[in-house]
Specification:
This protein has 280 residues and is α/β, with parallel strands linked by helices. 27% of the residues lie in helices and 30% in strands. It is globular.
C-alpha cells in the first residue's frame, strides 16, 4: 500500500480549507497514494465561537466531500477530523472519519483525550467546547488493520497498544500539534508509537498560525515499524508549506520486523496489573 499525509494551514475560511484539502488529496492520489490522511480539523480552525458555528453533522458538507472524493479517486480517505455536532449533545466531538474507496463511511472515531493544557503561557481548553470520545476504533484499509486516533492521543501509549493488539498495522494521527510542543516532542512521539507497536504511522499535521499566538508545527510524516521516517514534510521552522508526502508501506517488511524482534508477541499479559490505589 502507498500512503499519503496531507499538510494544511487551515483557518476560519472553510471554503478555502476544503479547496486546499481537495487539491492536495488529488495530488497525493496522483502520486499513487491508496490511503490519504488529512490533518485534525482540516475543514476549520478558529476561535471557540467559530468552531461552534462551523460544526457539522456527519452528513454535512465536509464529510460529504470526503465521501465523494474517495469514491471518485478510489482511495481510502481518513478525513482527519472535524468539529462534529451531534443531536442531544451540548458539546461538540472532535471526530475522525474513515471513508472507503466506495465512498461509504467505514469507521468513526471521536477523540478520547482532550487538549486541556497551557503551552508557553497560552491556554488551550478543548473541554470548553468538546466532549471526549469513549470508543477505541479499528478500521480496515487494503486488507490491513487501520487504527484511528487524533493529535493529543499520541501521548497516551495505552490507546495505540490496544489498537495494535486488536490488529492495527497502520495507525493514523491527524494532528494540529502546537509549534512549541512539536519542536520538543512530535518526531519523538510519532516514531515511538511506530516502534513500540511495530506499526506504520501516518501522521498528517496542520502547519502555521491559525489564530494570534497559536501556530501548528507541521512535519507531516510516514514512519515504518522500525521507526524509520519514510517521508517527512517541512516543519514550521522552515516556513509554512501546505503540501503532502507519500511513502510505500511494505507489509512484508513489517512481518519481518515483528518476527525478528517479537516484542508484541512477547507481551506477558498476566504480569500487567494496574497499580493498587492509582487512579483508573
Amino acid at each position: 500500500m502507498r500512503a499519503g499525509a496531507v499538510q494544511l494551514n487551515s483557518r476560519a475560511d472553510k471554503g478555502r480549507n476544503l479547496a486546499a484539502a481537495d487539491r492536495l488529496t488529488r495530488a497525493a492520489a496522483a502520486d499513487e497514494a491508496e490511503l490519504v490522511v488529512l490533518p485534525e480539523k482540516f475543514n476549520l480552525l478558529g476561535t471557540e465561537e467559530q468552531m461552534r458555528a462551523g460544526a457539522e453533522p456527519l452528513d454535512g458538507p465536509s464529510i460529504t466531500w470526503a465521501q465523494e472524493t474517495a469514491r471518485e479517486l478510489s482511495i481510502d480517505l481518513v478525513a482527519g477530523s472535524i468539529a462534529e455536532r451531534r443531536p442531544g449533545h451540548d458539546r461538540l466531538s472532535n471526530t475522525s472519519v474513515h471513508v472507503g474507496p466506495d465512498g461509504e463511511i467505514r469507521a468513526v472515531y471521536r477523540k478520547i483525550h482532550l487538549f486541556d493544557v497551557v503551552v508557553d503561557g497560552v491556554e488551550y481548553r478543548e473541554s470548553a467546547t468538546e466532549e471526549p470520545g469513549e470508543e477505541i476504533v479499528l478500521s480496515e484499509a487494503g486488507g490491513l488493520g487501520l487504527g484511528l486516533s487524533v493529535c493529543y492521543d499520541i501521548r497516551f501509549p495505552e490507546l495505540y497498544r490496544i489498537l495494535a493488539v486488536r490488529g492495527a498495522r497502520i495507525v493514523c494521527v491527524p494532528a494540529a500539534f502546537t509549534k512549541p510542543t512539536g519542536i520538543a516532542h512530535w518526531d519523538l512521539l510519532v516514531r515511538a508509537r511506530a516502534v513500540e507497536n511495530q506499526a506504520f504511522v501516518v501522521a498528517a499535521g496542520q502547519i502555521g498560525e491559525w489564530l494570534p499566538n497559536r501556530a501548528s508545527y507541521g512535519a507531516s510524516m510516514v514512519v515504518d515499524p522500525w521507526g524509520e521516517v519514510l517521508a517527512r514534510a517541512p516543519d514550521a521552522l522552515a516556513g509554512v508549506e501546505e503540501t503532502f508526502v507519500c511513502a510505500n508501506l511494505d507489509a512484508a517488511r513489517q512481518d519481518e520486523v515483528r518476527e525478528r524482534l517479537p516484542s508484541l508477541a512477547g507481551r506477558v499479559e498476566e504480569a500487567y496489573r494496574w497499580p493498587a490505589g492509582a487512579p483508573v
